[in-house]
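Budget justification note: compute hours in this period were largely spent on complex prediction jobs such as the one shown. Inputs:
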Amino acid sequence: MINEELNRIAEHEHEEDQKYEHHICVCMETACIASRSDQVKDALTQAVAESGSRCKVKGVGCMGLCSAGPLVKLEPEGVMYQNVTPEDATEIVQKLGDSPVSRLECNTNTPFFKRQTKIVLENSGNLDPERIEDYIAADGYLALNNVLTTMSSSETIAQISKSGLRGRGGAGFPVGLKWSTVAKSSGNRKFVICNADEGDPGAFMDRSVLEGDPHAVLEGMTIAAYAVGANQGYIYVRAEYPLAVERVKTAIRQSKKLGLLGENICGTTFSFNIDIRLGAGAFVCGEETALIASIEGRAGQPRPRPPYPAEYGLWGCPTLINNVESYANIAPILRKGADWFASIGTEKSKGTKVFALTGQIVNTGLIEVPMGITLREIIFDIGGGIPDGKKFKAVQTGGPGGGCIPEEYLDVAVEYESLVKLGSFMGSGGMIVMDETSDMVEIAKYFMEFCMTESCGKCVPCRVGTAQIHNLLDKVTKREATVDDLVMLERLCDTLRNTSLCGLGQGAPNPVVSTMRYFRHEYEARLQEAHDETAFLSH
Amino acid sequence: MLRNQKKLAPPSDDKRWRIVEATMRRHGYDSNALIEVLHTVQESFGYLEEDSLRYVAAALSVPLSRVYSVATFYHFFNLKPQGEHSCVVCMGTACYIKGSGAIVEEIGKEFGIAPGQTTPDNKVSLLSARCLGSCGLAPAAVLDGSVAGKLQPQQVIERIREWTK
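Corresponding output:
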């Protein structure tokens, strides 16, 4: 596969597209399929066949507004329909080229669509994730071809370093630095792993990227493998995402067929293979050393670092682990330039971040915003605020290891450092909005219950600490706790954070600490009543 | 290696063992493939029986203790047979704050089962999931393999009633 061949496929695709007057794009991701988008697509295909119009119906990735699914988009009109049912198909096809079906129309002239900046999701919602030709027509695999034929490994890493891209799994470690560490590590065998074990409840960014644009991840991984000198890669993906697994399998098969994966990629001497490894429902496997243990076929328990996987990883070999979203950023950076990427975002956090916006918010769905945007803009402009006239209370970011941020800090810019200062965490991108009816102690208890069950049991602080904190929170919710219990709660949180082996235990106290910091009165209100009751009984 | 590749007879002549054997062969009977093989066993038989664990241990030359440790460490693996129908309620944060707790509670009241349990007549298993990644449809559940969203407790109960008829 060389440049001309990619161009030929792209040209052929463009010519094919010219043959159609209209394109009807139907979202074919898990959430929309759950609302029968597969039946909508079949009905539309049939309606088009019956009407004989020159129109192409295709399945595409996520268009963002998941709560209004199934979503259907008309090109070139740019009209979007929401909550489409199979019964609407005939009318949609009949009105093509005429005025749109107004009762189904979804207004795209709103901040939800206008305020986003799409890099990772640039193809999502536009191309068919099950066809490699679609991806190639959208300049796919150009970056890979260019890197393999014209750039050295160190030049590639230099570009990624220059772009300022930081790990999108949550911690924000500079990607370029990680790559160069693996590249410098000695060893005949090296591995590249894609962490798609998206375990944070309330997060579905990685699922959407894998389902909507799997080739972007494969291209990013292959470039990474070339840069660090690896020949084997693994995508570790949750077994709970069967559709994502299928799409990735299809993508791997297609890219191998075109010589974009496998032996002698793009006609060079570089070879690289990717295999899928299924997770089995253990949250802790998102931690890199636990993930490695799981790929090795063992129970997913983390081990102390250093040595870091960059030096001693899978089967003791130097291993690069990045998250799905990090890999999906690679090809656009190399195609459009490191300076272009670095011009987006803030001084220390470059580019964009994909968030799964959920909870008590009007526009539930998948969004991509430039770093540095404020939480208020995300929640009230893009998200459309809180439904049913209720008041905003808190937003939870960072999953079970993150924190709850109250109203007074909504004007803080979204960056890795600023969120940590607020006692939360960027995390992989789950953003859960809560309104005034949410009980913050219950929320803290919910997350602690999660961490308690998911603790792998290897280190004492996490195994015992999460259970003890959970007991104390249970006492608070039952109004049996005393002031001393709150002191104990804080001390335990401190111990857990400082002495746990991995991120799960270290992060577990965050929901408790942040709710105690911002909503302490909710804890105290329950103590007070507990006190009153004891005082009353002792009389 | 030679010993590893010795052909071991599966616990029974059930045809489904051929699928399991194919997975093991694809991975060269490598002990690293343990989780992949257990996935295949569960996919084929619905759960991991003791005999299956013993067979996989012998075939991959892995101590039975390690097979058992892996099978019990990961939540995805079931060691008990499941009911004919399954209802997996998502307990992820988005679903939780939109009332998935009430769904589980109502099912408990009506059918007397908690997450992880199966009705005595073996018809329905109730399970809970950490997050289905369908947060846009919260609260969501997987009813017999297909995701359903924006659920009210009553809708789920009616589905289960149909199953138990």
